[in-house]
Structure formats: C-alpha cells, structure tokens
Amino acid sequence: MKVFLDTNVIMDVLLEGRPMHEASDIIMRLRISDGIKLYTSSLSIADAAYLTRKSYTLSEWKNIARGMLDRLKVLALSDFDIYLACKSDCPDFEAAMQISIAQTECDIIVTNNVGHFEPYTCLPVMTPAGFLARLSDESI
Fold this sequence. Notes:
By secondary structure, the chain is α/β, with parallel strands linked by helices. Helices cover 54% and strands 13% of the residues. It has a single domain, classed as 5'-nuclease (Rossmann fold, 3-Layer(aba) Sandwich), CATH 3.40.50.
C-alpha cells in the first residue's frame, strides 16, 4: 500500500503537542516489510521546515530531513500539479496541489483535514487514527 502523508501529518510527527502526534508517529515508523510505503511531497517538506523554524535549528532540521528521506519517498511538485490545482474545485489551493501529487503514485491520503481532500479525489482519505484503525482491522 502506497500512503501519502499530508503536511499536517508531517507536522504531527515533528511537534509533540499536536493532537495526532502519537498516531502520526506510529505511521512514520511503519516499514515496507509491513506492506506500507510512505510518500509525501516536496511541498510538505518545505512547508514543515518553514513552520517549524522556531522549534528546530537549521542543523537539527537537516538531520530531521535526512531521517525522513530514509522513511519517505518525496514526490516533486511539478508545473502540471500546479495546473491541475488551478483547475480543481477544491477551495484549498495547497490541498489541491497535494491531491494532484498524491494521485500520481499513491493509494491513499492520510491527513488531519479530510474535508479539504475527500470531495476532490478518487483516493480514500483518512485521518492518522482512522488509517491505523484500518490497518488494525485488516490484520485481524
């Protein structure tokens, strides 16, 4: 299963006080041996670096980014993704770009903002907790 992690899931992993920190952290630790391949976008990495600039030094962030590269495949934002976002009915432009990126390779989107994604993609969209519950149900 190819799982796209939205920016807010990456933020959950990076900042312990966020409500979905635990669930997102568990997801980030899943391995290919669990049948899961994790993806995010270059946009998410850039946004997370910007949003956490007061929580981490540049050196710390570079170490974090290197660690993420061991766990995630980072999909590039292309001009075509921006074009598709411009054509989308999604009222959240950043979400529209993420949808376009995710649909190129992934089977599911994991986000805290299901409402920003679900009506605008054919992919299943789940919260981190919902995704873990699905995994738990499938392993029974």
